[in-house]
Design goal:
single chain; alpha/beta
């Protein structure tokens, strides 16, 4: 890849700038200048590094300087319409054009990519970027390491990096990120396999515990089944014995059945006869009392008539005696009473007396007759009542005997019914017991079935466990193989000769042998060797410690390491880029060091089409055949070629 043209619009400090690289070859100086109101500053901030960032951003959408936001590339004064266009030629002489936008009013954040005028974009920006990386032959990290030399620690001060950072950078240079990814995948698979193995082991243990528990359950259920069978047989035998005893008791009860007295030829039972006789006795007694009452009343009336007639006879006799003693004159009216009238009145009184006497006699005779009838009736009733009461007593005794016999028979029937009910209940219990099933047999069979299932499942899981253990060993092998002590260690060891040879070559050019740099993949410890990628600096007359070197000496060491790493990248790159960019590579060097560095870069330029050196030291101009000057004026920068 050789750059042909770079256009910058609203990118960092550039409002509208263009660089034509076609006439530039070999070692090219990139300087800076402030003009007008910006003349108070030196070349710092003019935009030299921004031009380098423009090349990197066009290719990868990232700047050489780290820790920046995507919007930071947009020129602050414009705030939008950022556009960078880079045209370069590949090794097949095809013209490649990349146009990248940011916050553009028309193209937004679009990325355009064409080869010889034909659109070569992918279906997405990420796919397009992968095609650009493939065409360039390296990703951003490899580009930043092999093409760029900056003051950032991850770019220009390799010796100051931690062991992990050094290895990460070497991973990128060697292109063995795939090994790291493979190891990550192997570790991920290893963790998953370990988890699966742990789960399988737990499952195996669980299945074994379950099988043992089910085996114990089966034995317990079998014991309970046998115990249940014995208890069931004993219970059924007991029910049968109770049934036999009830049958014997029922036979004995049948033999003791009490006789029920017969009613006989009577149309009604004794109870009904007793009721009828009792009611007849009561009616006869009531009738006798009524008749006695009537006779008593008749006797009283006859006696009353007799007494009334007697009283009237006495009164009439007294009246007759008084009339006979009156004489011939009436004492009331004082009139004379004739003899005839006197005789007639006396005769009438005598007749009345005789009549009343007869009436009294008749009444007395009637009373005597009634009294005789009443006495006879009472005597007859007394005789009848005795007969009736005797009959009622006999009927009552017969009824009571029958009642007692019926009660005894009813009690016998209740006892018989109770025995029959107990017989039916026992028969039902025996029938129910005969239908009962030994549930423990089914439970024992179920436990045996489940135990057999667990055993089969256990065999499957144990086979999986063996497979997982074999898989785990395989993944451990690859984890080690893809790890620092595996293929990476081999690769790191394989690059040491080249790195040390190139570091020795550049150290001789830059320091005339005063300093030397040695790369190593191990360090000595008390307990042996430890894997660690180290850079050892040897000073012929000073301290063998990078941190104790002067600023200029550290700058030379950094340049030596960077050049050696660039050669390493170039030796392994699928498409070696014929350009190199050194940003402030001479900082901290004295004039002798700068001249030596320029000689080294001139040596590097023999193998590259373009070596762009960024510096603010104007006295170095005479050492370069070509110069590009970034001029800042009125807050914007432009690029001017100076021949």
């Amino acid at each position: 890849m050789r750059p042909l043209c770079l256009e910058l619009q609203n990118f960092l400090v550039f409002a509208d700038a263009r660089v034509d690289f076609r006439g530039l070859r070999g070692l090219v100086l990139l300087s800076g200048e402030h003009r007008g109101t910006d003349a108070a500053a030196d070349s710092n901030g003019a935009g030299k590094s921004s031009l380098v960032d423009g090349i990197a951003w066009a290719l990868y959408g990232r700047m050489a300087r780290p820790r920046h936001r995507a919007e930071d590339v947009v020129r602050h004064a414009a705030g939008a319409d950022c556009r960078v266009r880079l045209v370069f030629a590949d090794r097949d002489a095809r013209e490649i054009e990349i146009v990248r936008h940011r916050k553009h009013s028309r193209h937004k954040d679009a990325l355009f990519f064409s080869i010889d005028g034909s659109d070569a974009r992918g279906s997405s920006s990420a796919e397009t970027q992968r095609r650009i990386d493939q065409l360039v032959g390296m990703d951003f990290e490899t580009f930043a390491t092999s093409v760029l030399y900056t003051q950032h620690p991850l770019r220009g001060r390799f010796a100051e990096l931690s062991d992990e950072q050094k290895k990460q950078l070497l991973d990128s240079i060697l292109g063995v990120e795939a090994l790291s990814r493979a190891r990550d995948l192997a570790k991920q698979a290893l963790r998953a396999s370990q988890s699966a193995l742990g789960r399988a082991e737990l499952r195996v243990q669980g299945l074994r515990d379950q099988a043992a528990w089910l085996d114990r359950q089966r034995a317990e259920y079998q014991g309970r089944a046998e115990s249940w069978h014995r208890d069931h047989a004993s219970r059924v035998a007991g029910l049968e014995r109770r049934k036999e005893a009830l049958c014997a008791e029922a036979e004995a009860l049948a033999a003791r059945e009490p006789a029920v007295p017969r009613v006989g030829s009577a149309p009604e039972p004794p109870e009904a006869q007793l009721d009828a006789a009792t009611r007849a006795l009561e009616r006869a007694e009531a009738e006798a009392r009524r008749r006695d009452g009537e006779l008593e009343q008749q006797g009283s009336l006859a006696q009353a008539r007799c007494e009334t007639a007697r009283a009237l006879v006495g009164r009439l006799q007294g009246e007759l005696a008084r009339f006979q003693g009156l004489g011939d004159t009436c004492p009331v009216c004082a009139q004379a009473i004739s003899e005839r009238a006197h005789a007639a009145h006396a005769e009438r009184l005598t007749d009345e007396i005789a009549e009343q006497a007869r009436a009294a006699l008749d009444a007395r005779q009637s009373h005597a007759s009634i009294q005789a009838t009443r006495s006879n009736a009472r005597a007859a009733w007394t005789a009848t009542r005795k007969d009736r009461e005797r009959e009622v007593g006999e009927l009552r005794a017969h009824a009571e005997a029958r009642r007692l016999a019926l009660a005894q028979h009813a009690a016998w029937e209740r006892e018989r019914d109770a025995l029959c009910r107990q017989e039916r209940e026992l028969a039902a219990q025996i029938e129910s017991a005969s239908r009962e099933e030994n549930a423990f047999v089914a439970l024992a069979e179920q436990a045996e079935t489940e135990r057999a299932d667990r055993q089969r499942e256990l065999l499957d899981v144990e086979r999986d466990l063996d497979r997982l253990r074999a898989e785990l060993e395989r993944l451990r092998f690859w984890d080690h193989g893809f790890g620092p002590r595996g293929l990476k260690s081999y690769l790191f060891d394989s690059i040491l000769p080249l790195l040390n040879e190139r570091a020795r070559f550049y150290a001789d050019l830059l320091t005339a042998g005063t300093l030397s740099v040695q790369f190593s993949t191990t360090v000595e410890k008390d307990d042996g060797l430890e894997d660690r990628f180290t850079v050892r600096v040897l000073h012929r007359s000073g301290a063998d410690n990078y941190n104790l070197l002067s600023g200029g000496e550290r700058q030379r060491v950094n340049l030596i390491i960077n050049l050696a790493l660039q050669d390493l990248v170039a030796s392994r790159a699928t498409r070696a880029l014929p350009i190199a960019i050194y940003d402030e590579a001479f900082e901290g060097l004295d004039r002798t060091g700068v001249e030596a560095a320029v000689r080294v870069l001139s040596e590097a330029a023999r193998e590259k089409d373009l070596v762009l050196v960024v510096t603010h030291q104007d006295h170095l101009k005479d050492l370069f055949a070509h110069e590009l000057r970034v001029v800042s004026e009125r807050g914007a920068s432009v690029i001017q070629p100076i021949c």
